[in-house]
Specification:
31% of the residues lie in helices and 25% in strands. By secondary structure, the protein is α/β, with parallel strands linked by helices.
Length: 553
C-alpha cells in the first residue's frame, strides 16, 4: 500500500473514531490544578528552587493517584518518576558595571533598563571587557544556501556584534512581499539563539541584539524578565562553541543614539541590512563591562508518567508540557516579584494531568503513552532538549509528540492552530479530527514570531520525530477573531513573562476542554494504530526520520 493511501485511510479511521466520542474533560478540576501550580506558594516554578521541589512533588503525587507507572530514569532495574536533567546555572552577582562610549562620551547602562545582559553561559566566573569595539553586522546571518552572508570577509573575532532581531526580509514580508527567508515567516536564522551561536562560531566577544517590539513579537518587559534573572543551559562539553561571554539585548533608543554618534542613521543602516550586498559597519563606539558570575551545575527534573501499551508497549506516543516558569525575579509596577505563569504553562501542565486521567479511565491502547512534564523550557527548551538527547524511550519508535503550551482560557473557539509552520502527517490527523468536531485549522497567523522554534516539540522535531505544539484558536465563539486578536495582544503586552500572568476567576476554560477532546482523539487513534506518521517530502526533518526507518517494523 502506498504511503499516501495509508495516510488517507488512517485519516478516515480518525474521523470514524469520533463515533466513539472523546471523554468529557473536567474544567473545574483542570482549573483547580492551574490554581495550585500558579499559586504564590509555588514561587513561579523556577528550576532549581523550592518552587521546583513543590512542583515535582505535586506532579508525581497526581500521576501516582491517576494510576500511571513511573516512566523516568532507571535505577536498580526500576523506573522512577523523574529524569535527572543536569544544567549549568548562572546568575550575575549584584549589578553589572556597563559603560558604553560613543561620540566621545561615556554612558553607564543600567541592567534591565537600557540593556539586558544574560549571565555568561560559558561557565566562567567573571566577565571583563575593556573598551571592546562594536560592529554592526545586520541580522547576523550566514546562510550559503540562501546566498546570504552578513559578515562577508570581515574578521569579527574579539569584537562585540550589534545585530537586528528576526530575518532580513521580515519587514518586506509584513507588507505581503516574499524573500529569501520566507517573507514574514521567521526562519531559525531570525531566532536570537542562532545569533548567539553564530557569534560564538566566529569568535566574537559578545552580542548586542537591538530590541524592536514588532520583529521580536514581544515588548521590552519580556526581554528584561527573560534575561536578567538566573539563566540555565544544558551542560556542554565545549560551551564556548555555542556561547560568547557577553550576550545581551539593548533598547532601540540606545541603538539609535549609538548609530548617530557614529555618523550613521539607524533606519538607513537597517534598510541596508535587508540587502544581500550588506557589509558590516564598524561603529565609533566601545563597551566595557565587569561583573562576577555565580556559576554551578545543578540537577533539575523532567517528570514522566507511563501508561504501558497492551500490545506494542515498546512503541510510544508522547503528550508533553513544560512545568516551569520564571520563578522569582524583578518586581513589576505593583511590586510583585513572583512570575506565576498561570497561562504559561500551568494550563498545559494541568491539561497533561487531565489527559492522563482520561486515558487511564479508558481501555488500554496498543502502544504506550508517556505523559512528560519537562523543565527549563523558559531557559531555552532545555528539559525537552535533554530528553531528545537522552531519551527515556527510543525516538525511532516514538510515533508522535503532542505538546501543549499556553492554552487560552478565553472560551470556545471555532478554529485552532499549531506553533509555526510545518507539514507532517500528524498535523493532517489533527485537521481531520478538528473538522469532524466542527473546528477549522488556521495556520499560525503570526509566523513572524518564530513559534515553531519556541516550544518543546522542536528538539524532538529536529531529530525527526513527528511533533507539533497545539495552539488554541483565535476565532472565538463569543466575539470572533476581532475579540481573539485583542485578547491575544493584551496578554502578550501585559502578562506574557510578567508577574501579571496569574489565574483569574474570569477565566473560561471551556475552550481548553474542547481542545483536549481533539488532542485525545488524535493521540488515542495513533496509539491504537500501526501507523508511523512522517514529515512531508520537502521537510527539513524528513531525512532524520527516514534514517531510523529500519528500527520501525
Amino acid at each position: 500500500m502506498s504511503h499516501a493511501i495509508a495516510i488517507t485511510l488512517s485519516l478516515l479511521a480518525s474521523t470514524a473514531a469520533l463515533a466513539q466520542p472523546a471523554p468529557t474533560f473536567d474544567g473545574a478540576r483542570l482549573t483547580e490544578d492551574v490554581k495550585v501550580l500558579s499559586s504564590d506558594e509555588f514561587e513561579g516554578r523556577g528550576p532549581a528552587t523550592e518552587g521546583e521541589v513543590k512542583t515535582v512533588a505535586f506532579l508525581t503525587r497526581q500521576m501516582a493517584a491517576i494510576g500511571l507507572q513511573p516512566g523516568g530514569d532507571l535505577s536498580g532495574g526500576k523506573r522512577g518518576w523523574t529524569q535527572d536533567v543536569p544544567l549549568l546555572k548562572a546568575s550575575i552577582v549584584g549589578s553589572p558595571s556597563l559603560t558604553l562610549t560613543s561620540g566621545g562620551a561615556a554612558q553607564s547602562l543600567t541592567q534591565g533598563e537600557q540593556i539586558a545582559v544574560r549571565a555568561a553561559m560559558t561557565g566562567q566566573k567573571r566577565v571583563t571587557l575593556k573598551d571592546v569595539p562594536l560592529v554592526f553586522v545586520g541580522y547576523g546571518v550566514s546562510a550559503p544556501e540562501r546566498k546570504w552572508d552578513d559578515f562577508k570577509d570581515v574578521d569579527v573575532k574579539g569584537k562585540l556584534l550589534v545585530v537586528l532581531v528576526n530575518d532580513p526580509d521580515f519587514e518586506a514580508g509584513m507588507k505581503g512581499e516574499d524573500g529569501p527567508f520566507g517573507g514574514k515567516t521567521m526562519t531559525y536564522y531570525g531566532r536570537w539563539t542562532y545569533k548567539y551561536e553564530q557569534a560564538a562560531k566566529l569568535g566574537a566577544a559578545g552580542v548586542l541584539i537591538v530590541h524592536e517590539t514588532e520583529p521580536a513579537s514581544y515588548g521590552w518587559n519580556t526581554v528584561k524578565n527573560s534575561n536578567v534573572n538566573t539563566m540555565f543551559d544544558i551542560v556542554r562539553k565545549n560551551p564556548t562553541a555555542q556561547h560568547t561571554p557577553f550576550e545581551s539585548w539593548i533598547q532601540r533608543d540606545v541603538a539609535v543614539k549609538l548609530f548617530r554618534d557614529s555618523g550613521l542613521d539607524f533606519d538607513a543602516a537597517k534598510k541596508a541590512a535587508q540587502s544581500p550586498d550588506f557589509r558590516p559597519m564598524p561603529l565609533k563606539a566601545t563597551l566595557s563591562a565587569d561583573y562576577a558570575v555565580d556559576a554551578s551545575v545543578i540537577t533539575s527534573h523532567n517528570v514522566a508518567g507511563l501508561l504501558p501499551g497492551a500490545k506494542r508497549p515498546n512503541e510510544l506516543v508522547i503528550y508533553s508540557a513544560h512545568w516551569d516558569h520564571l520563578g522569582v525575579g524583578q518586581p513589576d509596577a505593583r511590586g510583585d516579584r513572583i512570575y506565576n505563569g498561570a497561562v504559561d504553562n500551568a494550563t498545559g501542565t494541568a491539561a497533561l494531568l487531565e489527559m492522563a486521567r482520561a486515558f487511564k479511565a479508558a481501555s488500554p491502547t496498543d502502544r504506550s503513552i508517556l505523559f512528560l512534564a519537562v523543565t527549563a523550557e523558559e531557559k531555552g527548551l532545555l528539559g525537552s532538549e535533554y530528553y531528545a538527547s537522552n531519551p527515556l524511550f527510543p525516538l525511532a519508535t516514538t510515533a508522535g509528540v503532542i505538546n501543549m503550551d499556553a492554552l487560552d482560557p478565553v472560551g470556545p473557539a471555532r478554529n485552532f492552530t499549531i506553533s509555526g509552520v510545518a507539514k507532517l502527517d500528524l498535523l493532517d490527523r489533527l485537521v481531520a479530527v478538528g473538522a469532524a468536531r466542527g473546528r477549522t485549522f488556521t495556520p499560525d497567523p503570526h509566523t513572524e514570531s518564530g513559534g515553531f522554534y519556541r516550544s518543546d516539540h522542536f528538539p524532538m522535531a529536529k531529530r525527526g520525530v513527528p511533533a507539533f505544539s497545539f495552539g488554541s484558536g483565535n476565532d472565538l465563539v463569543d466575539g470572533g477573531t476581532a475579540r481573539g486578536e485583542v485578547l491575544g495582544k493584551a496578554y502578550n503586552q501585559a502578562k506574557y513573562h510578567q508577574p501579571a500572568d496569574e489565574w483569574s476567576p474570569e477565566w473560561d476554560v471551556r475552550g481548553i476542554t474542547d481542545d483536549l477532546a481533539m488532542l485525545y482523539t488524535v493521540g488515542r487513534d495513533l496509539a491504537s494504530s500501526r501507523d508511523w506518521p512522517n514529515w512531508s517530502a520537502d521537510s527539513e526533518f524528513r531525512a532524520a526520520r527516514d534514517a531510523s526507518a529500519a528500527q520501525r517494523k
